Amino acid sequence: MKKAKELSTLCGVKVSAVIKSCDNAEPEFWPSKEGAEAVHSEFMKVVETQGFSKMHNHESYLLERIQKDGEKARRLHAENREIELREVMFDLLKGKTLM
């Protein structure tokens, strides 16, 4: 609950939490049940108007990161290859032989 309150205070966003433990039949709400319901209904209104286009789950986030990192690796590989070829070319121009 402390982290939810800090997030709300520091970031100026509306936060709610619903905690359900295995041994307790009733869930806990923060800041209150009514507050959690209000934040949830406001969130659902945003989802209805804007859709899920900007929302991520763990899987979509990881797939996006894998794709971006793969593109970055390919780009860096091409840059390294170009640098290596340039070094070989300059070595040949200086009269060095290839091993």
Automatic annotation (TrEMBL):
Highest taxon, organism lineage: Eukaryota
Family annotation (Gene3D superfamilies): Transcription factor, MADS-box (3.40.1810.10)
Residues passing through the membrane, by range: none
Subcellular location: Nucleus
Molecular functions (GO terms): DNA binding; protein dimerization activity
InterPro entries: TF_MADSbox (IPR002100), TF_MADSbox_sf (IPR036879)
Classification via SUPFAM superfamilies: SRF-like
Domain (MADS-box) ranges: 1-24
Annotated GO CC locations: nucleus
Name under which the protein is recorded: MADS-box domain-containing protein
Biological source species: Brassica oleracea var. oleracea
